[in-house]
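Per your request, structure below.
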């Protein structure tokens, strides 16, 4: 077979490996989404939000909004495809969107600390330990947020304590904490940390806000969305639909409902503050028909991850999904297989941000420092794979092939060491051994980043 004969098959195979939805599929989902929005609407548990929709000429009734195509198109045109999320240390600034590959972030809101036990809750000391650990992981780009809520702190002040701990112990870009009215205090702490003028003109705190499927936004997430958009800070609007439980029992139906929910949240943010960065997010998967709980280890989760990235690209928005998530509460074969499947799918699909990227287990409910270190080894494997194969004169190694005689070794050739140092993980074994010891060593070696004393004093006063 000639290369000309083979090329069409090769291109078709590559297409099928990387693309979950065709352009025709995406158009179909979009049209069905418009139909759902115009005919069925989205329940809005906020008189303020309904009034915002109504003021902009979008049809509402007592409790629902019915976004139209023109309003959605106008909103989508205002959403930036990329933006810079800034850190206290400018060396950690990251570009959200584009071709840089997935940014990795911590779990958000995992209640059970598996380093203590399968049903043990985290303390404030645990929260700080996780912030310190994640700060030291070079692959992890984002910090803070509701990583694992400390139950030994009153709920009314927990968001302030978590924000302070994240800001004091890491200078990477931060997730916001708190929901509803509480998030206003987090935003005020952000203005203090980064400077009011900087905060007004730049993007410093990322907040993840979810719909309450099916086809509903509750009052607290809506209040969070409104406050964040008013402050000109970026939002990831997500759905977490369980197929067959809180959404249709097919992936196509799930994607249509998810799309309707996310676009409604994105529209509201643009009506409040045109140009607010919006990230298209999803934690949707299949529901377990025996228990009604979510399952994240099946191939359905991978399908939704890939489709979410493609829908985000379709609308010109960055995307966010879960990373190495697993149904397992143990760091065994199941966790490794499911985590690799979901993280690899997200990386190949072009997801822009992966949260729950390190240390997440028990389908979003668990967190483990030991698993976080093992997940980082997994991402090293994925990074090596994503580098692809460079076919060029440089990599052809014609001189080396000619110089090394049959039966000899390339280990002594002059180019071997040089190339091994440049080719990522080529020539490196994976190291999944003794994560507990590594975690303890990292925490012992932790060095806190500098924070202006006057700013820290004011932050402490606020909590």
């Amino acid at each position: 077979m000639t290369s000309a004969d083979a090329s069409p098959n090769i291109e078709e195979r590559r297409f099928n490996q990387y693309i979950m939805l065709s352009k025709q599929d995406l158009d179909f989902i979009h049209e069905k989404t418009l139909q759902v929005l115009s005919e069925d609407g989205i329940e809005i548990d906020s008189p303020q939000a309904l009034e915002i929709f109504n003021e902009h000429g979008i049809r509402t009734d007592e409790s629902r909004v019915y976004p139209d195509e023109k309003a959605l198109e106008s909103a989508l045109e205002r959403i930036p495809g990329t933006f810079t999320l800034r850190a206290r240390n400018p060396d950690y600034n990251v570009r959200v969107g584009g071709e840089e590959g997935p940014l990795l972030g911590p779990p958000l809101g995992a209640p059970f600390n598996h380093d203590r036990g399968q049903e043990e809750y985290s303390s404030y000391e645990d929260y700080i330990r996780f912030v310190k650990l994640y700060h030291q992981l070079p692959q992890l780009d984002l910090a803070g947020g509701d990583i694992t809520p400390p139950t030994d702190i009153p709920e009314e002040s927990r968001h302030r304590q978590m924000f302070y701990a994240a800001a004091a112990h890491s200078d990477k870009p931060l997730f916001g904490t708190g929901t509803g009215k509480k998030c206003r205090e987090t935003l005020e702490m952000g203005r203090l940390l980064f400077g009011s003028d900087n905060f007004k003109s730049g993007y410093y705190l990322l907040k993840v806000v979810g719909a309450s499927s099916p086809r509903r936004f509750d009052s607290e997430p809506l209040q969070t969305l409104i406050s964040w958009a008013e402050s000109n800070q970026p939002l990831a609007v997500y759905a977490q639909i369980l197929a067959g439980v809180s959404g249709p029992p097919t992936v196509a139906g799930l994607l249509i409902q998810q799309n309707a929910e996310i676009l409604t949240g994105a529209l509201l943010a643009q009506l409040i503050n045109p140009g607010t960065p919006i990230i298209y997010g999803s934690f949707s998967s299949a529901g377990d028909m025996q228990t009604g709980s979510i399952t994240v280890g099946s191939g359905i989760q991978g399908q939704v991850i890939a489709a979410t990235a493609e829908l985000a690209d379709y609308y010109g928005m960055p995307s966010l999904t879960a990373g190495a998530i697993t149904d397992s509460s143990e760091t065994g074969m199941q966790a490794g297989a499911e985590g690799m499947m979901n993280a690899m799918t997200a990386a190949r699909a072009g997801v822009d941000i992966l949260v729950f990227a390190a240390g997440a287990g028990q389908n979003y409910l668990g967190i483990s420092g030991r698993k976080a270190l093992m997940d980082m080894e997994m991402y090293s494997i994925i990074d090596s794979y994503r580098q692809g194969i460079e076919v060029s004169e440089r990599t052809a190694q014609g001189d080396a092939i000619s110089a090394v005689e049959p039966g000899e070794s390339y280990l002594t050739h002059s180019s071997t060491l040089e190339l091994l140092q440049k080719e990522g993980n080529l020539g490196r074994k994976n190291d999944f051994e003794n994560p507990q010891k590594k975690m303890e060593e990292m925490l012992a070696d932790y060095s806190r980043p500098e924070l202006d004393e006057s700013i820290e004093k004011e932050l402490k006063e606020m909590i």
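The radius of gyration is 23 Å.

Regards,
D.
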